[in-house]
DNA sequence: CGGTATGGATGAAACGATTCACATCGCCGT
DNA sequence: ACGGCGATGTGAATCGTTTCATCCATACCG
């Protein structure tokens, strides 16, 4: 494999000069610059990132650790961070913890071994300090899709409790008095917060807590939603509305109930969460709480870049917690036609 | 940052021994092994991947370059390769060429700079040799989701022409005589092959080529599908069936037409391609040609691993081209209820 | 003409691991 | 007692960059 030394020999200059041509071209005379570039083209030389990293002490990559790469919500979030990172000349390595705390730790150690420049991650576990490995290694990180104490770290999240309330108020205002909450694993903060919001809305309305019927689902995907939908159909009295922890569940629920001849929204109003593209694309467009994925990704990447190199070096870095406001997007699945 | 030297000093051994503990523990006595591990824990030592890479000459990562990370088809494919790679102790770096040949080249050079161990990629451009950079750098690669000459490289693809034919025959057997083909950008091989299959089915049936009505779409996503659906509605006479290059387009088409009161499948039969999860999850489940994403991902990763280290070193490596058979998955969107 | 900036180029040290030729030691068989 | 052997440990060389102290002309100033 051809290295910088070969280029130097070919161009008849020293290795230091070649390095300068690559990194600080303005310091090198035109003529030599041309000679070096010619040599590079001739030999097909490509810089070795690993050697650069070794010298620099860290790589030129960010890590992004999400809970489900199959969920379009995270795909969009990833695209947001990728764009910002690319502008700063950084690459992004996206990994899938698949909602497993063990996998999460595995990837975090991988990130440390790789000496990533920074990490964005959506923690699975709700307790403990999953980011300890990063802390020890002095790798800047931003918590994504979950708010944490600003003494701990930067974070970018949306207000899930508010989101739950928006959904709840909407359903209650439409007269629903028996609302199912289809939810994923309870160890996820999001799952609990959204329920909490729903409960508050119920309380605001002066209704009893038994207005809410919990329907647990194994995972946060469509097939778990279908399953939950089947269980919902068996309930009696049947809820007249259902709020789901995310859109994938909602799409699954809607499909099962639709199949069974239940009319949506007339017999059953359905609300999802995240507002992924497929929510809008459903034949009965799904009412959803918009969770600004791309923006979370962009802002988080921005905070991370700031933490990596503070614009105002003397003041150092101050952790920031950004909380975005979710927004209810009302569509057909929750609003009977006149 | 603590390095192997610090560990060696702390444990009172040489650096070589620490390296042995890490890489060939069986060569080291129990006692020393324990001392070294104690030192590692005490100091919080973490191996530097970049240093290992520099020495080894290549990284322990594979690259996966796909055309749209937002398309669940590729998300599933990626999960397939990730599993196989993980078993071999390799990580995967997933990148998004976004159907742009320029971005594709950009990522390929990135891969070369990183000295990735191997690369899987779904080429955007249909002509030329997009993999030249990899060739020059001697990085093994497998072409994914597109068949190429086995003298050139390994590849894993599905037979898109056959897939198109399956869709076509299905529609023709149901009596459709005017079939729209909603397709993405024509520079993609898949787009052309699937149409070719449809055309063959039409020919087999002894019908004229004007049985097919082309409806171009800008991209291969839902919103382009909606747009195409609107144009389809304006056609007269209106096709009675529509075949789409992928499921995202089909979902978009189906939504627009459904909205306009066109009954699917009675007034308009719809077939997609890929059979992503959302095809099955649609309220009117979408008939689709199953494109085995996970399997493509797994097999391609397998071939790549073989190319990286041939099981039978004396025989060297022989490029292999795997072509999988697609399968028609008939659902409600193409079959009127009795 | 001596002194001194200045712009360009140099080459050695350092980054942190792996590897390999070599050293050491105890033990066995003759 | 000695050569040989296996098991264990050592430390220097190496990978390909970047960086920095240094050096060399050349031009400029007084």
UniProtKB/TrEMBL annotation, chains A, B:
Q: One Pfam family, short name please?
A: Peripla_BP_3
Q: Which UniProt keywords apply?
A: DNA-binding, Transcription, Transcription regulation
Which is an annotated GO molecular function term of this record?
Answer: DNA-binding transcription factor activity
List, alphabetically, the SMART domains matched.
Answer: HTH_LACI (SM00354)
Domain HTH lacI-type positions = 2-56
Q: Does the record's keyword annotation contain DNA repair?
A: no
Q: Which InterPro entries match?
A: HTH_LacI, LacI/GalR-like_sensor, Lambda_DNA-bd_dom_sf, Peripla_BP_I
Q: What is this protein called?
A: LacI family transcriptional regulator
Which organism's genome codes for this protein? Streptomyces filamentosus (Streptomyces roseosporus)
């Amino acid at each position: 494999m051809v290295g910088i030394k070969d280029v130097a020999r070919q161009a008849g200059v020293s290795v230091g000069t070649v390095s300068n041509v690559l990194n600080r071209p303005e310091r090198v005379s035109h003529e030599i610059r041309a000679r070096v570039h010619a040599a590079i083209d001739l030999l097909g030389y490509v810089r070795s990132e690993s050697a650069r990293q070794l010298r620099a002490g860290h790589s030129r990559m960010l890590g992004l650790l999400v809970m489900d790469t199959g969920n379009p919500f995270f795909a969009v979030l990833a695209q947001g961070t990728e764009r910002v990172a690319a502008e700063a000349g950084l690459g992004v390595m996206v990994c899938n913890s698949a909602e497993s705390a063990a996998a999460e730790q595995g990837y975090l150690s991988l990130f440390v071994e790789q000496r990533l420049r920074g990490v964005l991650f959506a923690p699975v576990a709700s307790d403990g300090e999953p980011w300890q490995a990063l802390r020890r290694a002095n790798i800047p990180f931003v918590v994504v899709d979950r708010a944490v104490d600003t003494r701990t770290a930067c974070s970018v999240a949306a207000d899930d409790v508010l989101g739950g309330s928006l959904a709840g108020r909407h359903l209650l205002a439409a007269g629903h008095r028996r609302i199912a909450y289809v939810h994923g694993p309870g160890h996820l903060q999001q799952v609990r917060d959204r329920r909490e919001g729903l409960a508050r809305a119920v309380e605001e309305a002066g209704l009893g807590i038994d207005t809410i019927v919990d329907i647990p689902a194994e995972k946060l995907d469509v097939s778990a939603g279908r399953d939950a939908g089947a269980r919902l159909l068996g309930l009696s009295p049947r809820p007249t509305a259902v709020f789901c922890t995310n859109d994938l569940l909602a799409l699954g629920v809607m499909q099962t109930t639709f199949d069974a001849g239940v009319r949506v929204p007339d017999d059953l109003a359905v609300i999802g969460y995240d507002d992924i593209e497929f929510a809008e694309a459903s034949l009965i467009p799904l009412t959803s709480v918009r969770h600004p994925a791309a923006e979370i990704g962009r802002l988080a990447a921005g905070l991370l870049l700031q933490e990596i190199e503070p614009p105002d070096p003397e003041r150092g870095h101050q952790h920031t917690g950004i909380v975005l406001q979710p927004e209810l997007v009302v569509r057909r699945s929750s609003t009977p036609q006149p």
